[in-house]
Structures are given as structure tokens and as C-alpha cells.
Specification:
Blueprint lengths: L3 E11 L5 E11 L3 E5 L6 H8 L7 E6 L2 E2 L5 H9 L1 E4 L3 H4 L6 H12 L6 H11 L16 H13 L5 E5 L7 H18 L2 E6 L2 H5 L4 E6 L2 E6 L1 H6 L4 H9 L25
Parallel strand pairs: 3-8, 3-9, 6-7, 7-8
Antiparallel strand pairs: 1-2, 1-4, 4-5, 9-10
The structure holds adenosine-5'-diphosphate and magnesium ion (MG).
Magnesium ion binds next to α1.
């Protein structure tokens, strides 16, 4: 697939009795590419994620996935398109049903996707392996898994429908640093191996820098800068971007400590 998969055009959103969360935001995610979206807390990142996933509609402007309005994906055809657009949340534990075993959660996504029942156990095992999990863990409940393992299950579940694009909303910010590095490495590897496109949201520029081909900086619901990661890092154009870099402890003169993704991932991860 070529061209832009996700196109947000001049999207605005005001919450009822709330702030203007997004004010004329435009961005594009080409097929197979990762776009980073950074901004401080409250800048509108999660609102934009919800728009992209079609969970809410923009007041004005449009949000299209492969040409389809994300808020109008209805019926069988809508479900087929929606399956190609997946979500990785900040709190994976909260997104998994505690009553379902990890393997059942992934199998359920396969069922919704129309994978025949007989093929599901093999596919679950294959998906577990593809995210670096022992398929034996499929028999555990989320509470019996570590935070990193739960996020891997969430990734496996998102991959079950063979998506073209994943919206990741701060997918590692609830994890401690070592595990965060492992999950970021995994996401980078999956993007390359599967040719996945990704809208990767983070308040942390250092995290986005290693995964993104382009970075969009959001402030008070507006895009203040769009740049390559290197351009942003070495020659930020907007004062707000410079402030974000300084807050991260990085600037061209004073480079930050290596980001998690710079370090090799230890093999495996301790069980809880
Ligand atoms: N459901 C909601 N109702 C009212 N205001 C909201 C709601 N969700 C978010 N907001 C407000 O919209 C703004 C953007 O929030 P959000 O998109 O969550 O930002 P971020 O993810 O960057 O922290 C904030 O001022 C937030 O308080
Ligand atoms: Mg958020």
C-alpha cells in the first residue's frame, strides 16, 4: 500500500462544558510510516487519538482512514476497515477483561476478525511468539502477568486483525524504564517486519525520536511544528519545542542520557 493511510484535515473538537481541545489540526500518516505526536499533558493528544479511531467525531474538519471517515465506519464493510485500524492504550491492564485469560482475549479479537475457530489456537500461539511471549502464558489471567507482559498481550491482540495502522497512546508511560525499552524495541521491530504504520503519541520527545519518521508537536490543541526527528532535535523551530526538549533534559548542546531504545533489550523479563 502507498500514499497516506490516515489523513486528519483541519480537525477541531470542543468538549461540552470543556475546552477547545483541538483547534484546526492537520496531519498525515503515510502507509508503513511512523508519525510521532508529542505535547505536554492536556495538549489534546488523546483527543486526537480518539478522533483517529472514530470514537468521537470532530466538530469541524475531517478524519479519514484510507479514504473513509473514521466516525462513520458502520456495518460489515465498516468493521472490515476498522479491523485495519487498531489501538494500543496507555493502560493495557485496564483494556483487558480481567475475567478472560490472555489467550482468550487474543482469540476473541480473532473471532471478531472472522478467523475460523479451528485456526484460532495456532494463531494465538503465533501471535504470542511474534510479541516475544511464551505461548504458555496464554493460560494466565492479566493479574498473573507483569506490566510488560500485559502490554505485549495488548500488542498481540491489536495485531490479530492484521492492521495497517496502530494508534499508540503513550503505550509505555505506565511501565518502568527497562520494560519500556523492551516494548519500544518490539514496536520498532514489528513496524519494520510487518510494514505497519503508526501514530505514536507521547509526552516524551526522547521516546518518539527513535521510532518516528516525522514528528508533530501539539500545543494547546494546535500543531506548532512538524519536522523530522533529527531536525526537531538539532534545530527545533518553535520555542515550545525547545522548551519540550529542555524539559526532557536534552538539547543539541546538552544531549540527554541515551533513550531507552538506545540500549539493547535484555532477554526476557522477570515474572511478577
Ligand atoms: N471527556 C472530556 N470532557 C471534557 N474535557 C476533556 C475530556 N477529555 C479531555 N478533556 C480536556 O481536553 C484537553 C485535551 O485533553 P487530552 O486530549 O486528554 O490531552 P493529552 O492526551 O495531551 O493529555 C484537556 O484540557 C482536557 O482536560
Ligand atoms: Mg493523553
Amino acid at each position: 500500500m502507498t500514499g497516506d493511510l490516515l489523513v486528519v484535515d483541519q480537525a477541531s473538537k470542543r468538549y461540552r462544558h470543556g475546552p477547545l481541545a483541538l483547534d484546526g489540526v492537520s496531519l498525515r500518516v503515510p502507509a508503513g510510516r511512523t508519525v510521532g505526536l508529542v505535547g505536554e499533558s492536556g495538549s489534546g493528544k488523546s483527543t486526537l487519538a480518539r478522533l483517529c479511531l472514530g470514537l468521537i467525531a470532530p466538530d469541524t474538519g475531517t478524519v479519514r482512514f484510507d479514504g473513509h471517515d473514521t466516525h462513520r465506519l458502520r456495518g460489515r464493510a465498516g468493521r472490515r476497515i476498522r479491523a485495519r485500524l487498531q489501538f494500543l492504550p496507555q493502560q493495557p491492564r485496564g483494556s483487558l477483561n480481567p475475567a478472560l485469560k490472555a489467550g482468550e482475549a487474543v482469540a476473541f479479537a480473532l473471532r471478531v476478525h472472522g478467523t475460523p475457530r479451528a485456526e484460532r489456537p495456532d494463531r494465538v500461539a503465533e501471535l504470542f511468539r511474534s510479541v516475544g511471549l511464551d505461548p504458555a502464558l496464554a493460560r494466565r489471567h492479566p493479574r498473573q502477568l507483569s506490566g510488560g507482559q500485559v502490554q505485549r498481550v495488548a500488542i498481540a491482540r491489536a495485531l490479530a486483525t492484521r492492521p495497517d495502522l496502530i494508534v499508540c497512546d503513550e503505550p509505555t508511560s505506565a511501565l518502568d524504564t527497562t520494560v519500556q525499552a523492551q516494548v519500544l524495541d518490539l514496536l520498532g521491530e514489528l513496524q519494520e517486519r510487518l510494514g505497519l504504520a503508526c501514530l505514536f503519541i507521547s509526552h516524551d520527545l526522547a521516546v518518539v525520536r527513535h521510532l518516528a519518521h516525522r514528528v508533530v508537536v501539539l500545543r494547546h490543541g494546535r500543531v506548532v511544528e512538524e519536522n523530522t526527528p533529527a531536525g526537531l532535535w538539532n534545530a527545533p523551530r518553535h520555542p515550545y519545542t525547545r522548551a519540550l526538549l529542555a524539559a526532557d533534559g536534552g538539547s543539541p548542546e546538552h544531549p540527554p542520557a541515551p533513550a531507552p531504545a538506545d540500549r539493547p533489550a535484555p532477554v526476557g523479563e522477570p515474572a511478577p
